[in-house]
Records
---
Amino acid sequence: FFDKYYKPSNAVLVVVGDLDQKKTMEMVEEYFGDIPGGTPIPKLSGEDRINKGERRQIVDSPKANVPAVFIGYVSPPHKHPDTPALQLLNSVLVDGESSRMHKRIVKDEEAAFGVFDSRLGPSLFRLIGASNAGVDIEVVEGLMQEEIEKVQAEGITEEELQKVKIQWKKNFISGRQTCMQKAEALQHYAFFHDDLGEINTDMD
């Protein structure tokens, strides 16, 4: 696995800062030039067939301090046109004290959060809930499922949509302030997008 995927032909190197291009390229060559590039990795189609329907697994661990429930949905590849909608839905459900899951579940020290793990191929939309000692995890799962069913049946409100759009724009813009943030952004668009210039148009 390491030999196949961890190589220059499957990597992006980004250097950001007040630099001299000639000297920088000399340093890149010095530190990385002798690493074999390797053969290119075949592009993922993003059309892998995923088993339909619910699959459930219970994992017991003596290291777990509290019970938790993980609800995951297969989501499309990053370049799919539904990705922006899923990013905003994740915010509606779990971001901040006014999010649906927070208002419904985060009480009595229960907790809920989500992760939209967007990748080149099939991705994962996860919602995670944990309960404090003495709180039945089935109760937490039931509340989470109710909120999911509400979205399926009713969608979200215009007020919620406008709020998370503003939050997304704020995070998008503020995430360009440091050299590291700029490097991460350039890496993301070089790797996940067909055109690096989309870094300037993605907000639209």
---
Amino acid sequence: MNNSNTVCLNGQPLLTDLEKKLGYTFRSRKLLETALVHRSYRFETDGIDEDNQRLEFLGDAILGMIVAERLFDRFPEASEGQLSRLRAQLVKRDTLAKIAREIGLGEYLLMGSGELRAGGQSRDSTLSDALEAFLGAVYLDSGAESVEQVFDKLFSERLQQLDLSRSVKDPKTRLQEYLQSR
């Protein structure tokens, strides 16, 4: 994987190919690197003082806001409950992990040896957290407009496939409502 577009952090490739897939080039390499550092790597490696957890927190909030705004605009006739169910479809762990897999995010993650042996780079929770961290890093790097552009590139097809008539309540919610009505 070594080519002229490769930047390395401790021997691990951070390819500009990732940036190309997302249509975004970081001004701050440090933000990109931090977004790709799993906490297991930080505790096994000297010199790494920050992992992607704080960026994940920020990215989660930003993702929720962008999804809410896009759904609000796309479905003006939808109720709050319908919008919430549609949002849940877009921001749930397995959806985020699928997107992370599509862009190959797992191969760029820096992880501790134990986490790697346990298959951490392909775990849904790790991938979804890394995608959120990446979105948080884009936001800090250049603001809301840039992160919205990356979001649109990653989520627009899924957003277009959403159907308000199929935003039914999950089985657990339906059962709870049925039991409460009795």
